[in-house]
Amino acid sequence: MKAWIITIGDELLIGQTVDTNSAFIGAELSKAGFDIERKISIHDRRDDILQTFRGINPDVQLLICTGGLGPTSDDITKQTLCEVFDTRLVPDREVLTRVEEMMSRRGFPMNENNRLQAMVPENCRVIPNEMGTAPGMLFEKDAAMFIFMPGVPFEMKHMMTEHVIPILKERFNTQSIIHKNIMTYGAPEALLAEMLSAFESALPEELSLAYLPSSGVIKLRLTASGKDRGMLEKIIGEQVAKLYQKIPDLIYGEDEKPLEKVVGELLAERKQTLSTAESCTGGKIAQMLTSVVGSSAYFMGSVVAYDNSVKRKLLGVPGELLDKHGAVSEEVVTAMAEGVRRVTGTDYSVATSGIAGPDGGSPSKPVGTVWIAVSSDKGTVTEKYVYGSDRHQNILRSSNAALNLLRLQIIRK
Question: Does 162 share its domain with 183?
Fold first, then answer.
């Protein structure tokens, strides 16, 4: 079943608002068995809307659109849809009652713009909006279904899950599409693809493999499609088992689970604790760790030792090490990790020191050079990385690398 997703709004095109709606809708439709053929963002302009709808592929069986249904003068989607579907706007009593109740509950007076929300195309099926005032609308034409929802994300999501998906399941006999994500860290995309070349070539015809990299993490997405869901689940399970045999040291989790959550679960299971000493990452690792619910059980604290004086005074890094090797060095990052572990009394500690950029590098230590250390009663291990010149990416990649190095030390026998 082929589907299109259209988002309407000038704010999407100029970057003022990030389009999260199409991502959510795409994920929900994919789970429901639809093949997303195209996603489009267009202006709040009559001609653009008409041109887009007249250019829809006739093979498309479902189109879902968000935006332009509000009560203000720039929201013209409803009026334009009357041209597309050869109809007119008429008042809907149920929608008007719902809007009146919502305005009264919130303590706002009704005005003409609110009343206009109850005007809907005569030949549409109204989809209730329990979260807002703009109703959804459903049209059927030439064996295709067209669904329109408000652009406010929380209103759209509620309408999608509570009303639209049940309608689609009742209307369409879709095939099963199953996605399984395997999270990896430790090999660049090109090398990982080379390692998995034979695995990928031997995949059953029902399966496909995609590589989705982000800040050092590479998500392997296995996708299976067909009519027999039970068989597809069995095939995916078999291939996942083969991946674990092929790249056991690179896989750290499944199904979008981030490294910070995996590390937290490992520490919680073992009733062990962690502290961090961060220079170039500026507290990013601590922020990632504490974003996980329950992290207070294992994360004790962090020292953001950005200046060398803090490295000396709080972490006990000897001045001669800083003078001889510089802050970005194996010797100093080792002393940082051991110092914060000593101060906090934790089972593990992580330290980072590097040149995040975009300036501050030298021929011997170019921008993107990062040293990472993990200390525990097993000893202290260090790794050196050289990234690019983008400051944000260097901080994020260093933080992920530190968490992965920690993960490997926790599971080390």
Answer: no
